[in-house]
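Suppose you are handed a protein chain with no further information: no name, no annotation, nothing but its sequence. What can you learn? This example shows the usual starting point.
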Amino acid sequence: MSQGQGVDLSYEDGARAVELAREAVESYVQHGQREQPGSMREAFYERTGAFVRLESTRGRGSLRGCAGGYRSGEQLGHVIVDAAIEAASENSCGSEVTPSELPNLTVSVCAVRNVVLTDDPLADLELGTHGVAIDGGEGGWLYPTVPVENGWSEREYLDRTCRKARLAPGAWQDDDVVVTLFEGQVFRERKGDGSIEEV
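A reasonable first move is to predict its three-dimensional structure. Written in structure tokens, the prediction is:
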């Protein structure tokens, strides 16, 4: 098992990361433009991966978009903007986010802290701490908070990440499939009042 470091965000950094992601989504959806990060907080100059997830609060709620990567040579501020735009585009969940949806979206950002290459994902995986990325098939990943929200076991979490990569459940055990675990700090808007919490 080997690790690579990422960035540690303060609450203020995390809150700004979520605000930046929302600004990027709104700028893209309303005007077709790429938001510039502007004067960035110091942590946003770190070169690390990040993910952005958009969820609808309508009805029972649903995933509207997710994008990002656990590895990046770009500065965190730019990674967040790019991931937010991709999450809002038709490339993510099949249909572009529309302006009328914006008030009913919650935005969350996962900033990657540690990347863990593992030969034994079942043993090394800690639910609630690690996100999972599968390199194989079409590639796929899931946020660290997803298995806790859904009550999944470690094995089910790995199987479902394989499905997202368009691989058979259990493919994480194959020699030609690379499993990477990543620790991430997740900040998100609360449903209702839009205030930001660290998960």
